[in-house]
Amino acid sequence: MAFAPVRVIVVGGGTAGWMTAAALAGLTGSACSVDLIESEEIGIIGVGEATLPHLRAFLERLGIDERAFMHATDATYKLGIEFRDFGRVGDRYIHPFGTFGQPLNDVAFHHYYARLAHAGGVPPIGAFSAGVTAAEACRFEQPGNDPNDPTTSFGYAYQFDATRFAPFLRAWSEARGVTRTPGRIVSVERGLGERIGAVRLADGTRIEGDLFVDCSGFRSLLLGGELEEAWEDWSHWLPCDRAVAMPCESPPGPIEPFTRAVAMPAGWRWRIPLRHRIGNGYVYSSSHLDDGDATEALLAALEGAPLAEPRFLRFRAGRRRRSWVGNVVAVGLASGFLEPLESTSIYLVQAAITALIEHFPNRRIAAVDRDGFNATIDAEYDRIRDFLILHYHATTRDDTAFWRHVRTMAVPPSLDDKISLWRQTAQVAKYTQGLFLEPSWVAVLLGQGVLPHGWDQRADLPNAGGLTRAFGGLSQAIAARVAAMPLHDADLLRA
Ligand SMILES: Cc1cc2nc3c(=O)[nH]c(=O)nc-3n(C[C@H](O)[C@H](O)[C@H](O)COP(=O)(O)OP(=O)(O)OC[C@H]3O[C@@H](n4cnc5c(N)ncnc54)[C@H](O)[C@@H]3O)c2cc1C
């Protein structure tokens, strides 16, 4: 039986709103019509510049040309995130997009690495990652096609100007039939039960829909506001609740193909190099630092002249208990927030869009679709939450009240279990859904100085001398391959 197209109303025109509109227009055929409402008066959050490799798949699925996207958004390539001063002041490591080394006899590389690291004299694990080695050398080229070749296989993402992505997607979406209604929603009409029937704009326009995608940002106009879906607060685990952001001119020298996160006395500071400027911000806990001191610390760290006044953002870590209620699906900040330490928010937008398309309803919404969607989003949030807490908790820092608090606080049992499994066995808990698989946990655990006491016993089989020589050969092969790559800037010039 053919169903009439579902009338989808997207509320909000930030990154979440336009990504949703683009995906529905590009990927659902004639299953729906899409109208997007956005208020120019309210505007968009305008931060959110570092991404994960999944965004590449998003653009590819829609047939968007990478170079056109990079031009339009002043994007650079991103090979990972460098963390400084997290495990201990003076420490640094890069969490790359990709694996370390190669498995041997079905045993993951990091088990052999753990064995050698205990004996001492092995370089940081980044030496066995093409992504880390290229990031450190400021070099970039498209990765190779053979996932088993550790000298050419790595993932990459983008760093882009957050104010340019939504307009880029808007043009793309409007060309594919999405309609846009500018205006501020001032009231909401309820349908039966938990359903929304229509929204009304300040100029009196009434817009009806079958499915409302709430992309209204932190306001969470429909899900949090109208439907009053409960908020699950995670600020006891992730106490940072403020950020001050300020772009600056780029310093002379190469453009780094990575984002930097520097631990600060009451949080951490981001540095995101774009083609035309550097994005900077200090994410902090307002219980430990006031806005004035945060701004001063950020200003002191800038590497070039500031390009704007400081902007302050307030948030809370957590999420709405359910992201899809009645005929409202929240995507982006309207559904929850986890701080940008691992650049996960735009990924969460994408995960919600993918789940929505998989569970795309007809005009009568089936509970099974809604529940399936909510279960997926729950898993995504929970996994990211644990991974973020790890960066704070796995530290030996005790130099400020903030670091003493996060080092000693109780963490979710799911994270406690993961850390003890790692310490005892060098294993990373496996899961099929959600972000951050084994290599990411390995990167951060080792990077923050959590060396396991045990490992897969098969890693003890090769003789130590042979293993050390094989490790040396591998890191040299990666270094030689990377030395032949063009500089990141040179690749950008071609883009
Ligand atoms: C400090 C900070 C740093 C971040 N850094 C990163 C990062 O590096 N990487 C990353 O992936 N993410 C990051 N994020 C998150 C990222 O910015 C967001 O996930 C992303 O921009 C999506 O935002 P949004 O579209 O949900 O909300 P917004 O951009 O706030 O858009 C909301 C939209 O709703 C509209 N609206 C609201 N109310 C109404 C109304 N009444 N009527 C009509 N329209 C309305 C607004 O006009 C706007 O168009 C960061 C967030 C913060 C706070």
What distinguishing features does this structure have?
6-stranded mixed β-sheet, binds flavin-adenine dinucleotide, single chain, 7-stranded mixed β-sheet, alpha+beta, 21 strands, 495 residues
Sum this structure up briefly.
The protein is an alpha+beta fold and 495 residues long. It is built from 15 helices and 21 strands. 36% of the residues lie in helices and 19% in strands.
User: In percent terms, what proportion of residues is strand?
Assistant: 15-25%
Nearest-integer average pLDDT: 96
Structural class: alpha+beta
Helix content: 25-40%
Total number of strands: 21
Q: List ligands, each type once.
A: flavin-adenine dinucleotide
Main sheet characteristics:
7 strands, mixed
Termini separation? 47 Å
Number of helical regions: 15
Strand order of the largest sheet: 5-4-14-15-16-13-17
* 3D shape: globular
Low-confidence stretches: none
Radius of gyration, taken over Cα atoms and rounded to an integer in Å: 23 Å
